[in-house]
């Protein structure tokens, strides 16, 4: 006796969260059944393995049918075929677009192209996430990217509107799209200590201050691309390190202000010029695409690592960065105060977030 | 020209991409009614076109309005080649034809294609202007309301129940016409869908005419079926019960909160004389022989068994003359009728006087295409024959009417089994006649029929029994005779006194048969049928005994014919009726008691069976009162009946000797094990596993013993097909396979719905078909309803309190202890633990607390007797055991906490969420009040695929199709302004596959009543102006979802 056909259709579509998770994680039906058995469901419910198999198959089939709709979440809301309560719809969408930290760190900043997709088996092998799940996550990134790519208005808002994500998820996706568009390097060994959260935090600051959208809200792509003009202008900041007098003055102002307040004062004093040179040079180089991509590498190399090797506590870093950017306003010979603030406010935020072990 | 149909095409959305180059579609719409077609403009390059068309107006006869569906076709415009069809929407405009139903159909409809399924949606508005019809000789029956519901619909009152109406129409099946060889599958499917739509429209109109002729204004319990006879044609037939209904219009009628169905029917249907309503129509011939090309070539009538509660016994001393009088009355009312049949399964109080038992008839026919189309309607003759047989069976049981009547067919190639079944009954004539019967008789009836047991009393003559049976005096009133078991096809009457809870019982049976042709085949089948009937009956009886119960309700026996086998599946809800004697156990007897080990085996089996019975009794809380002399015969301590009470007490003392016999093992049912077959049977008896704790199941509308439904409902359809290994199939192997299939299916359902615990599967409806040689298909539709065990405690408590008060007036001695118990437990526990006391006291066995707690309410709906029983039990138990307090505290924790959580987590907004359409096979929605019936939904769909693998195989294909069918039903209901379908039924699900060709085809026919319901919680707020308010609400709902 073999079951040829075995289905269950409810007027309200039944969603089993546990099975949904297994499906999203890319397990085959038989693996999923095995995992459910291991979780002790048979003992809890007194069901048989055959019942579990049938139930799992059924849920998988439902998810498979829903997947097409999940690719355009507003469709899920308006379709008539599956009657699903709104809270469940939200759950379906949120879980479908959720991603694994390990996976996102692998592809963050990479071009969402066929080439990257081919590397997914390596990523799968490395992270232990099933290839199926990797593909889903990658396709999700790419799908969101494609949809919001050429839109006006806030990136996170656009994502939220077209994919009905929660705030949190929409902001994460905004970061992913922003990184993918600007191709920031995140995979270098020295960046491994950084989490997706660190990058997402920086992305949000950069979107707010460094993109076209920060100055003009009526352009296409406003939140995706960095403001080219602004990057060009950043060259002007070079004077801060090129002009020796200005550099000395800046240093003395910072040292005066921080004397006695910093545990690592002497180290700071000794390193000031190097650090300042590093930060200003990062700014000046941002005209080149290549250097934009290496932004995080540079920041870590030029600032985070030196400070860390001197064992600066985070509080000291904060004090230093505050003084470092504020005192520039007291430099009479320096005319680009607004530019400096736009650059440094964001950078300070980023650096503080990047500064950890 | 009595009507103007107006249609407006507003917009489309989510259309499929029809032009690969642009990834867009140039869509336009054709609107067709009858032979008139209108077109919208082409809306270029959009998947969400906004046509916003003018109003297309069709001027049509109301006859056409009834017959024809409105056909809307969405197409993709193509400049160079033929336009491609995207899909169609058929809209039945019948609901717009009665004044009280829907006034406009407006909403998003799924665009359906028989090959691709749903492809986007279209927004349509439909209105009808009806002109007053001056033609007295018309053919239409506009205005007659149709209900699938098999009871008097909730917001109506039955003035008169006229009786049986039936009709059938016949046509050639387009699938088998020669043209089918050259047209596309799509064209063929659409021709079929359209034809069936037309035929059911015509059928409904004709039935309507008959109703008008009978001076009724509605058909209740309308059941329409299709017989796909293949080569020989397509039959659409329908039966129903003609009624004159009166709308309950007073706002007060909406107010009373009421969970249990049919409570509101209590307002007596007698109050108004039936003076209104009937449009007098004088119709010219209705029996137009529509394409009757079928004749009877060969037919075998099968001798049928009559199942009943058995029993003879003179109808009590004083009951005799009265019964005769009643019989005369009824006779005169019913004998005018050709067939005194009623498709209803639930009745207004007082309607049902006695129930005789199940009557059924089957006959085997050979289908053949007829060469002489002038032959009289053979199908009509066939059914008339069967109905005649049913009628005579009923007569044999001393009954003049048949209630819960239904008809069905099973077709395999050219053989067709026609079946009809119902419950023989004696009815109260006052509902059946135009004139109201004089009052004195009514009085007598009411006085003579004690509530809750009257229907169990035998209607037939004790001295002239139709079959041998044990009769005893009724355990309730002690005056009249009752059978030892009662089988019926109806729902449990609301006033019946039930002990404990009910449960679903199934008898399953397969019989192999040789493949044969024509007459030989039909003869073989008809030879097998009586044996199958007998075995099904035996199985039912055994299983009933095993449950420790004594009556079956909602019995439905389906016999399915296949190429090489016959399948029988009987489902019913077993209950313990307080009026019937306690069933004896089952005793096993070996035929050859020579061998010692054999003996041992037998005794082992016997023990197992006895254990099972005991376990079941506990599980379903069957604790009929110990009948002791002091309390005997006084179950209804109503004040006004007190005098009678005394009398019956005195009477009972004479009868005690007789009654005592029925206790203990007196009439144990003896099972003889004389061969391996019988052994198998016993084994299979024991393999049925009870549902997991927290689950109950029944196939009737409501579960006896549960009355506190909460609002969560989940209707579902589950389909399974198994392939039998074709090698040396034996009857035993077949039976086992079939049994496993059904049991596994049930287990799967319990597992799937485990999040709803505590819940009950209601109206569980199994359908078996044999699509191919080695395939068995089982389709189940049911609804899971949650209930609140805590609330149950409360209601029971009030019951107990009430009965206590009542009892106290009768018997001082009873008063003391229980009252004390209640009063001291009340303030300390939020949930009155009286019940729990009882529970814990009673069951000191190893049942986990949770399981016990799930089954806490035994008092069936508002019946006094059971709470009275409780009382006695309570008393007995508490006396037997000392302190109970301790157990209570232990018990309290887990189930209560869970219950609380449930309450909170149940989404309070679920019903107010926009656009949700509930579906249920029941006639009511728990916790809600139906305020309006919008019309009948009757839809037929065909889906076909030539890319089965790509659509996920057979399971993927059928899963998607059923989901689509649900979606289309919901969309139609929403467009009518409704928010639920009640009495939903999937009448047909014919699935055919050809995996080698990667093809499959499926036909589904569903029906139900579209309604507007309002939550009882909202009802208080909305109160008087609620019909309009709700309409707006649901309309708004539709808008928002879209």
UniProtKB/TrEMBL annotation, chain A:
Q: Name one GO molecular function term.
A: fibroblast growth factor binding
- Cite the Pfam families for this sequence: FIBP (PF05427)
Which GO terms of type biological process are on file? platelet aggregation
Which GO cellular component terms, listed alphabetically, does the Swiss-Prot or TrEMBL entry include?
nucleus
What this protein is called in its record is Acidic fibroblast growth factor intracellular-binding protein isoform X6
Taxonomic lineage is: Eukaryota, Metazoa, Chordata, Craniata, Vertebrata
Q: Which gene encodes it?
A: FIBP
TrEMBL record, chain B:
Entry keyword annotation includes Transport:
yes
Q: Which UniProt keywords apply?
A: Calcium, Cell membrane, Cell projection, Cytoplasm, Cytoplasmic vesicle, Lipid-binding, Membrane, Metal-binding, Protein transport, Transport
Q: Where in the cell is it found?
A: Cell membrane; Cell projection, Ruffle; Cytoplasm, Cell cortex; Cytoplasmic vesicle membrane
A Pfam family this protein belongs to? C2
Keyword Calcium on this protein? yes
Which terms in the GO cellular component ontology are assigned? cell cortex; cytoplasmic vesicle membrane; plasma membrane; ruffle
Region of interest (Disordered), residue spans? 630-660
Q: Name one GO biological process term.
A: protein localization to plasma membrane
Q: Which domain of life is it from?
A: Eukaryota
User: InterPro entries from the entry?
Assistant: C2_C2CD5 (IPR037785), C2_dom (IPR000008), C2_domain_sf (IPR035892), C2CD5 (IPR038983), C2CD5_C (IPR057815), C2CD5_YbjQ-like_dom (IPR056430), C2CD5_YbjQ-rel_dom (IPR056431)
List the Gene Ontology MF annotations in alphabetical order: calcium ion binding; calcium-dependent phospholipid binding
The C2 domain sits at 1-109
Which PROSITE patterns does its entry note? C2 (PS50004)
**PANTHER family membership:** C2 DOMAIN-CONTAINING PROTEIN 5
- Tell me the function of this protein: Required for insulin-stimulated glucose transport and glucose transporter SLC2A4/GLUT4 translocation from intracellular glucose storage vesicle (GSV) to the plasma membrane (PM) in adipocytes. Binds phospholipid membranes in a calcium-dependent manner and is necessary for the optimal membrane fusion between SLC2A4/GLUT4 GSV and the PM.
- What protein am I looking at? C2 domain-containing protein 5
Q: Which organism is it from?
A: Erinaceus europaeus
| Gene coding for it | C2CD5
């Amino acid at each position: 006796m073999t079951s040829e056909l075995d289905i269950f259709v409810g007027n309200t579509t039944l969603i089993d969260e546990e099975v949904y998770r297994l499906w999203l994680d890319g397990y085959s039906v038989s693996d999923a059944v095995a995992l459910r058995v291991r979780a002790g469901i048979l003992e809890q419910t007194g069901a048989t393995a055959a019942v579990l198999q049938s139930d799992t198959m059924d849920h998988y089939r439902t998810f498979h049918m829903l997947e097409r709709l999940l690719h355009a979440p507003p469709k899920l809301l308006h379709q008539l075929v599956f009657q699903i309560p709104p809270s469940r719809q939200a759950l379906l969408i949120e879980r479908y677009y959720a991603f694994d930290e390990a996976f996102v760190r692998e592809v963050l900043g990479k071009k969402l192209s066929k080439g990257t997709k081919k590397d997914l088996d390596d990523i799968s092998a490395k992270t232990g996430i099933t290839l199926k799940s990797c593909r889903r996550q990658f396709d999700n990134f790419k799908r969101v990217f494609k949809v919001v790519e050429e839109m006006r208005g806030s990136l996170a808002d656009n994502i939220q509107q077209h994919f009905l994500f929660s705030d949190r998820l929409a902001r994460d996706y905004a970061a992913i799209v922003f990184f993918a568009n600007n191709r920031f390097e995140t995979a270098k060994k020295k960046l491994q200590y950084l989490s997706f959260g660190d990058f997402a935090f920086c992305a949000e600051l950069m979107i707010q201050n460094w993109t076209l959208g920060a100055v003009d809200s009526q352009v296409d792509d406003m939140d995706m691309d960095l403001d080219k003009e602004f990057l060009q202008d950043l060259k002007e900041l070079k004077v801060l390190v090129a002009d020796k007098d200005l550099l000395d003055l800046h240093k003395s102002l910072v040292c005066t202000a921080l004397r006695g307040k910093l545990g690592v004062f002497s180290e700071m004093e000794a390193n000031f010029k190097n650090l300042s040179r590093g930060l200003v040079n990062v700014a000046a180089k941002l005209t080149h695409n290549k250097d934009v991509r290496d932004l995080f590498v540079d920041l870590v190399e030029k600032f985070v690592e030196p400070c860390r090797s001197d064992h600066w506590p985070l509080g000291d870093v904060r004090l230093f960065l505050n003084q470092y950017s504020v005192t520039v306003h007291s430099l009479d010979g320096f005319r680009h105060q607004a530019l400096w603030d736009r650059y440094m406010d964001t950078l300070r935020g980023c650096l503080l977030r990047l500064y950890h072990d | 020209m009595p009507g103007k149909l107006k249609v407006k095409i507003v917009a489309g959305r989510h259309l499929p991409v029809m032009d690969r180059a642009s990834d867009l579609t140039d869509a336009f719409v054709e609107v067709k009614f009858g032979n008139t077609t209108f077109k919208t403009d082409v809306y270029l390059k959009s998947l969400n076109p906004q046509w916003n068309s003018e109003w297309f107006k069709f001027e049509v006869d109301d006859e056409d309005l009834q017959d024809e569906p409105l056909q809307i076709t969405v197409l993709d415009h193509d400049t160079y080649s033929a336009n491609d069809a995207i899909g169609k929407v058929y809209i039945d405009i019948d609901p717009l034809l009665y004044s009280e139903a829907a006034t406009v159909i407006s909403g998003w409809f799924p665009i359906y294609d028989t090959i691709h399924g749903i492809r986007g949606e279209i927004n349509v508005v439909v209105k009808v202007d009806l002109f007053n019809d001056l033609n007295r000789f018309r053919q239409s029956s506009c205005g007659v309301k149709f209900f699938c519901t098999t009871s008097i619909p909730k917001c109506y009152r039955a003035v008169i129940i006229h009786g049986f109406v039936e009709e059938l129409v016949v046509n050639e099946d387009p699938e088998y016409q020669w043209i089918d060889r050259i047209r596309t599958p799509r064209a063929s499917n659409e021709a079929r869908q359209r034809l069936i739509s037309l035929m059911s429209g015509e059928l409904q109109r004709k039935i309507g005419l008959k109703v008008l002729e009978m001076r009724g204004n509605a058909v209740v319990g309308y059941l329409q079926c299709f017989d796909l006879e293949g080569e020989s044609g397509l039959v659409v037939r329908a039966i129903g019960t003609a009624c004159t209904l009166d709308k309950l219009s007073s706002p007060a009628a909406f107010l009373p909160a009421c969970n249990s169905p049919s409570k509101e029917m209590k307002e007596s249907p007698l109050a108004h004389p039936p003076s209104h309503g009937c449009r007098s129509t004088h119709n010219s011939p209705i029996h137009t022989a529509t394409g009757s090309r079928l004749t009877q070539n060969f037919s075998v009538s099968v001798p049928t068994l009559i199942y009943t509660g058995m029993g003879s016994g003179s109808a009590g001393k004083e009951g005799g003359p009265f019964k005769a009088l009643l019989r005369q009355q009824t006779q005169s009312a019913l004998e005018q009728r050709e067939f005194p049949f009623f498709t209803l399964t639930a009745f207004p109080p007082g309607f049902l006087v006695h129930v005789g038992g199940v009557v059924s008839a089957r006959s085997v026919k050979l289908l053949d295409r007829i060469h002489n189309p002038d032959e009289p309607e053979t199908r009509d003759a066939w059914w008339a024959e069967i109905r005649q047989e049913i009628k005579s069976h009923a007569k044999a049981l001393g009954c003049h009417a048949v209630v819960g009547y239904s008809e069905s067919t099973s077709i395999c190639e050219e053989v067709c089994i026609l079946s009809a079944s119902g419950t023989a009954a004696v009815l109260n004539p006052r509902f059946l006649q135009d004139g109201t019967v004089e009052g004195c008789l009514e009085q007598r009836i009411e006085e003579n029929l004690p509530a809750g047991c009257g229907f169990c009393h035998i209607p037939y003559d004790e001295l002239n029994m139709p079959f041998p049976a044990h009769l005893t005096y009724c355990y309730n009133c002690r005056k009249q005779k009752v059978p030892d078991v009662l089988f019926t096809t109806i729902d449990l009457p609301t006033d019946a006194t039930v002990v404990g809870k009910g449960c679903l019982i199934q008898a399953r049976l397969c019989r192999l048969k040789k493949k044969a042709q024509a007459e030989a085949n039909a003869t073989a089948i008809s030879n097998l049928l009586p044996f199958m009937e007998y075995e099904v009956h035996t199985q039912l009886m055994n299983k009933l005994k095993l449950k420790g119960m004594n009556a079956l309700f909602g019995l439905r026996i389906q016999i399915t014919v296949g190429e090489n086998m016959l399948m029988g599946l009987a489902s019913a809800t077993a209950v313990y009726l307080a009026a019937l004697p306690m069933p004896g156990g089952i005793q096993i007897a070996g035929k050859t008691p020579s061998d010692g080990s054999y003996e041992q085996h037998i005794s082992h089996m016997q023990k197992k069976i006895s254990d099972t019975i005991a376990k079941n009794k506990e599980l379903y809380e069957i604790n009929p009162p110990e009948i002791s002399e002091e309390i005997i015969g006084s179950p209804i301590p109503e004040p006004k009946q007190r005098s009678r009470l005394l009398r019956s007490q005195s009477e009972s003392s004479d009868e005690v000797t007789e009654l005592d016999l029925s206790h203990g093992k007196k009439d144990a049912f003896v099972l003889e094990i004389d061969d391996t077959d019988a052994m198998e049977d016993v084994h299979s008896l024991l393999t049925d596993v009870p549902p997991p704790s927290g689950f109950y199941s029944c196939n009737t509308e409501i579960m006896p013993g549960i009355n506190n439904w909460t609002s969560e409902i989940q209707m579902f359809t589950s389909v399974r097909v198994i392939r039998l290994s074709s090698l040396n199939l034996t009857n035993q192997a077949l039976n086992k396979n079939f049994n496993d299939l059904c049991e596994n299916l049930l287990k799967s359902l319990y597992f799937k719905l485990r999040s709803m615990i505590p819940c009950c599967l209601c109206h569980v409806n199994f359908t078996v078909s044999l699509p191919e040689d080695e395939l068995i298909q089982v389709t189940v539709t049911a609804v899971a309803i949650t209930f609140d065990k805590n609330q149950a405690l409360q209601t029971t408590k009030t019951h107990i309190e009430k009965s206590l008060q009542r009892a106290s007036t009768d018997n001082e001695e009873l008063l003391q202890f229980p009252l004390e118990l209640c009063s001291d437990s009340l303030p300390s526990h939020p949930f009155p633990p009286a019940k729990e006391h009882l529970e814990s006291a009673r069951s000191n066995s190893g049942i986990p607390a949770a399981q016990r707690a799930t089954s806490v309410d035994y008092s069936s709906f508002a019946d006094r007797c059971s709470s009275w029983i409780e009382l006695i039990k309570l008393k007995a138990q508490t006396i037997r055991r000392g302190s109970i307090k301790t157990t209570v505290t232990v018990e309290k924790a887990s189930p209560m906490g869970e219950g609380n959580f449930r309450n909170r987590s149940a989404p309070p907004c679920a019903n107010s969420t926009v656009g949700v359409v509930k579906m249920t096979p029941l006639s009511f929605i728990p916790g809600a009040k139906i305020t309006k019936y919008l019309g009948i939904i009757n839809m037929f769909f065909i889906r076909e695929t030539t890319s089965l693998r790509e659509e996920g195989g057979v399971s993927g294909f059928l899963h998607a199709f059923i989901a689509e069918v649900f979606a289309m039903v919901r969309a139609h209901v929403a467009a009518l302004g409704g928010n639920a379908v009640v009495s939903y039924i999937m009448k047909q699900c014919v699935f055919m596959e050809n995996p080698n060709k990667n093809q499959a085809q499926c036909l589904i026919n569903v029906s139900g009543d579209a309604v507007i319901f309002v939550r009882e919680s909202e009802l208080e707020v909305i109160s008087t102006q609620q019909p309009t308010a709700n309409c707006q609400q649901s309309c708004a709902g539709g808008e928002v979802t879209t």
